[in-house]
Specification:
It is a single chain. α8 packs antiparallel against α9 (140-162), α19 (383-397) crosses α20 and α42 (923-947) crosses α44. This protein is elongated. It is built from 44 helices and 12 strands. The termini are far apart. The protein has 999 residues and is mainly alpha-helical. The longest helix is centred in the middle third of the chain and has 29 residues, at 475-503.
Length: 999
């Protein structure tokens, strides 16, 4: 070929889409020589190929093995165009034709029609020589013949699909044909199985008469049942067995089920096992009753008994698409007729909401992070998002409306429009998006005849996908199309499911879809609202009217309802949002922030639906909503900053009532900030405890200054007074709802002793009175003082020293291990600390005192638990919980604190680490103790955050336990896991405690 001619030929190849031009030129020359066909004739239809270079290479490989079928393709009126399209889109079919070159001659010359279900069935039955339900032979050759014929028919479907100018318009009929082909393949495989198990003509152990009398219905589930199957997809099935009534006297039901089970196993093997011809697809029977643990085949009565007694809601929902696919059609129809009513009544079951939420999880199930951006099916905005939305609408409204009980996604969309549940325009967009995504999925699976849902990662792969799908002209174009569809799908779920809820309670434009009150009630109940009627009242109050605020709320409410529904308590979350909205009224920044910051709006729904503690405080401090727009505003504030603010408050207010009102507001505000931060920010339990302790210290310090100014006259100013933190307050280990354990000490410093004592008592009374807060209680608990509740409320420093020297008992020395001065005279705190050190870190410990501590610990476990409480669930006093860890650490501090400086700390975890460093506690044991202590602390705080009430009992109620788990960042519906984690952690910690504490 002359240089100019070759250059022109290469240019023509490039224009047709060839990429490896030199290789293509060489392969064309090879084909010309092998086939005796002019290259211009060979290349004529190459432009229909997604990957012409790949198709050309496939032609060359096949021709090397058997040139005749390839030569026949390029005869006048033959199938060259179909072959170019198929081999250019599918290397998998290239491998098939390489194994079976004569199959090329069966490619259709035109692609005007699809094979019908009857054609598919007849062809596949003919491939195994089926007659009266039995194949001609039952050997492996029959299965090979079946698989080859299936792929021949699959090629016809693919050619029709690939040569359609708008494949999205034929998606439904193509998917239906693929499902029909799968059903035909199962039918043919069942015929082979019957022959294989039969005797005497077959090699099996069952008589041919008994096998013929055995009924086996193969029920298609999922996409196979809905006639919307992919090219390569698991085919979900359920097997139903039995025998006709005339044979039951001779063939017992158990015998029939044995035969049917063997038939089912062999039918699956014929499709999925490894043979000379590769498997077609996986036959998945895991949706059967009891899943993989259940019998592969059951009788119809056995199925119905299971569904009536044991089945969960998701099992009924899985039956939504059930359809007789192969085998005994009469038995299959009886099965479907029997289970259909159960599908729709499942929406009225008690656990339907939980089941719906599990459906949501399956939509967003975990996929590798590196695949999320490429996942066509499971990723955000993917195929399963659409299927979930449509199926959810069907399940919610299908109980009352038979017209929407459709198997297929597209058919269901049309029915939902026709019955008025979704708007026509939105449904049209959703339908288009679904069809586009499915076309992309089909092309991806055709490429290698493999089950995949991942978009190509290379420019070349995207270019081929664009050419094969006809959806874009370039690889970049098809990626942009996919990105736009994903965004649209994510938005449209809100428009289809949530926005119409507003129409039941607020006036919307005429073109918007409307729902009745009953329909809106059903939707809200389905997504988790316990009081749908109340929710509708709140929605109406927020969105009704012509004001700008109502207009913004109407815009926000659909997506916020979705976020509330994702929370622990959507009813309370919506109520709290209404109250906050009403408190803020038309405040410009509030509406602007919600409108412009989707992140802030989502965080607001999260904290309100997840915590009554937060919701109650936000109602009184509605301006706190602004913090959600910036993570920085949720960070704990430093103690010195809070101290400066508290001092400034007292400088501004002359009366103690005004000053303390402002101090209480400061405390509430900071507690709310910490509660919100604990839910939204990455804070450890130590950080939260330290911040809560700081807020409490600042509050007590400010209160003491205000009270002292009122109580102590100038002439008695020399009086020293201090507050000593005890217990978890002293250890800086407070949680939400914790009491503040304290003791009070004074020093007269020249003031008359009686007068000093009276003033100290007034200071204590003032502190307790003015620190009271009915909204967020602050209980100053002085029960850890010497002699407990029987002892004086306040003592002088000398009285403390004398008492500890003469009368102190072991528990009082133990209590002092957490003593830490937090307010009042610094000098007095230092002096008290010196007195305490001599008691809590003795040079030697009396063995009797150690025995007494152990005796008291045992008594506490038996006597201080609330009556009727499950001791294993008590977060403070239960085995392996807070008290076990703290008592063990405190015993070590008493015994070794004098010689080990690291043990002289009020912090439990710091002291535990010091014990490890000193070799007193093994590393592994300390890890178990620290984990149990931290988990118990977190659960205590989460319990308070969730309910707004303080409790030391891990709840048994699954909903509350799940809510606590969500606060601890467990996934939804993790109640059992939370419980098991806590009980396991405390059980292991208890074993360590008993070994180290009791010896």
């Amino acid at each position: 070929m002359a240089t100019n001619e070759r250059s022109s030929a290469l240019t023509d190849l490039a224009r047709r889409g060839f990429t490896r031009l030199d290789d293509a030129d060489r392969l064309f020359a090879e084909l010309e020589q092998t086939l005796g066909v002019d290259r211009t004739l060979i290349v004529t239809d190459a432009d229909v190929a997604a990957d012409p270079s790949g198709a050309l290479e496939a032609f060359a490989r096949i021709a090397r093995r058997d040139p005749e079928p390839v030569r026949a393709l390029f005869a006048p009126g033959a199938s060259a165009r179909s072959a170019w399209a198929l081999l250019g889109a599918s290397s998998g079919f290239g491998e098939f034709f390489l194994r079976h070159p004569p199959e090329l001659t069966h490619l259709p010359a035109t692609a005007e029609t699809l094979p019908t279900a009857d054609e598919l069935s007849a062809s596949l039955l003919q491939s195994v020589g089926a007659l009266d339900g039995f194949a001609a032979t039952g050997d492996d050759d029959a299965w090979v013949a079946l698989r080859v014929r299936y792929r021949r028919m699959l090629a016809r479907i693919a050619v029709f699909d690939l040569l359609s100018p708008a494949p999205e318009d034929v998606l439904a009929v193509v998917a239906a044909a693929l499902a029909d082909a799968a059903g035909a393949a199962l039918e043919a495989s069942l015929c082979v199985a019957r022959t294989r198990v039969s005797g005497p003509t077959g090699p099996g152990l069952f008589s041919r008469e008994h096998v013929a009398a055995t009924q086996l219905a193969i029920i298609g589930m999922g996409k196979a049942g809905a006639r919307e199957l992919n090219y390569v997809s698991d085919v979900d099935v359920i097997f139903v067995g039995g025998a006709d009534d005339d044979m039951l006297s001779e063939l017992s039901e158990s015998r029939a089920i044995d035969i049917a089970t063997r038939l089912a196993v062999l039918t699956m093997r014929g499709i999925s096992s490894v043979e000379i011809e590769p498997p077609l697809w996986e036959v998945d029977a895991n949706l059967r009753p009891e899943g993989t643990q259940g019998a592969l085949v059951r009788s119809l009565d056995s199925h119905l008994a299971y569904y009536d007694r044991w089945a969960k809601s998701w099992e009924f929902q899985a039956l939504l698409k059930a359809r007789p696919l192969a085998g005994d059609a009469t038995l299959g129809a009886r099965y479907v007729d029997a289970v259909q009513p159960k599908i729709w009544t499942s929406a009225a079951r008690e656990n339907f909401v939980d089941s719906v939420q599990r459906m949501r999880e399956r939509v967003t199930e975990h996929i590798p992070a590196e695949e999320v951006a490429y996942q066509l099916k499971l990723g955000p905005g993917g195929i399963r998002d659409i299927e979930f939305t449509v199926q959810l609408l069907q399940l919610v409204h299908g109980l009352a409306d038979e017209a929407i009980r459709q198997r297929g996604t597209l058919d269901a969309l049309e029915a939902l429009v026709a019955e008025g549940y979704i708007g026509r325009a939105d449904a049209a967009v959703f339908s288009r998006d679904y069809r586009l995504l499915r076309v992309l999925e089909h092309r991806l699976q055709l490429r290698g005849l493999s089950r995949t849902h991942l978009m190509p990662r290379t420019p070349e792969g995207l270019r081929e996908l664009a050419r094969a799908s006809h959806l874009a002209g370039t690889g970049d174009g098809v990626w942009k199309l996919w990105e736009s569809v994903k965004r649209e799908v994510r938005e449209i779920h809100v428009r289809l499911f949530y926005k119409p809820l507003l129409s039941a309670v607020a006036a919307l434009p005429a073109e918007e879809q409307t729902l009745s009150m009953a329909q809106a009630h059903d939707r809200l109940a389905a997504i988790g609202f316990q009081d749908p009627a109340g929710a509708l009242r709140h929605i109406g109050a927020l969105t009704s009217g012509l004001s700008r605020k109502a207009a913004i709320q109407r815009h926000l409410m659909p997506v916020m309802l979705r976020w509330f529904a994702d929370g622990v308590d959507p009813d309370y979350g919506l109520l709290a949002f209404r109250r906050i909205s009403e408190r803020l009224g038309d405040t410009p920044w509030f509406l602007r922030m919600l409108r412009d910051s989707s992140g802030a709006a989502e965080r607001l729904t999260r904290v309100l639906s997840g915590s009554r503690y937060v919701g109650d405080l936000m109602e009184w401090i509605p301006e706190s909503v602004a913090w959600l727009d910036s993570g920085e505003q949720l960070r704990p504030r430093a103690g010195v900053v809070l101290e400066d603010e508290a001092r400034a408050i007292q400088a501004r207010h002359t009366s103690i009532e005004d000053a303390m009102r402002a101090v209480r507001a400061l405390r509430r505000r900071e507690l709310l900030r910490l509660a919100m931060a604990s839910m939204l920010e990455d804070l450890t339990i130590e950080q939260i405890a330290h911040a809560l302790t700081t807020v409490t210290e600042v509050t007590i310090q400010a209160t003491l200054r205000a009270v002292r100014r009122e109580v102590v006259p100038p002439e008695d100013a020399e009086l020293d007074f201090s507050v000593i933190a005890m217990g978890r307050f002293g250890g800086a280990e407070l949680g939400f709802g914790s009491d503040a354990d304290v003791i009070y000490v004074y020093r007269a410093n020249g003031v008359d002793a009686q007068r000093a004592h009276e003033l100290a008592l007034k200071l204590v009374a003032g502190l307790r009175n003015h620190s009271e807060d009915n909204r967020v209680p602050l209980d100053l608990d002085a029960d850890l003082r010497p002699e407990g509740r029987n002892g004086p409320l306040v003592r002088s420093l000398d009285a403390y020293a004398e008492y500890y020297r003469r009368w102190s008992v072991s528990w009082e020395a133990q209590a002092l291990l957490r003593a830490r001065g937090v307010a009042g005279s610094t000098k007095l705190i230092q002096a008290f600390t010196k007195v305490a050190d001599d008691v809590r870190y003795p040079a030697s410990v009396d063995p009797q005192a150690v025995r007494e501590i152990k005796r008291i610990k045992a008594r506490v476990e038996n006597e201080r638990l609330p009556q009727g409480a499950d001791r294993t669930r008590h977060l403070k006093l239960g085995p392996g919980s807070l008290s076990d860890v703290e008592w063990l650490v405190q015993l070590l501090q008493l015994q070794h604190g004098h010689e080990l400086a690291g043990l002289r700390t009020t912090s439990t975890i710091a002291a535990l680490q010091a014990a490890v460093d000193a070799g007193l506690v093994p590393d592994a044991a300390a890890d178990l103790l620290a984990h149990a202590w931290r988990l118990s602390s977190r659960l205590r705080s989460a319990n308070t955050l969730l309910s707004g009430q303080t409790s030391d009992i891990l709840p048994a109620d699954r909903r509350r336990l799940d809510g606590i788990g969500r606060l601890l960042e467990y996934p939804p519906r993790s109640a059992t896991r939370v419980e098991e984690d806590y009980l396991g952690a405390t059980r292991r910690a208890r074993r360590v405690f008993e070994k180290l504490f009791y010896g």
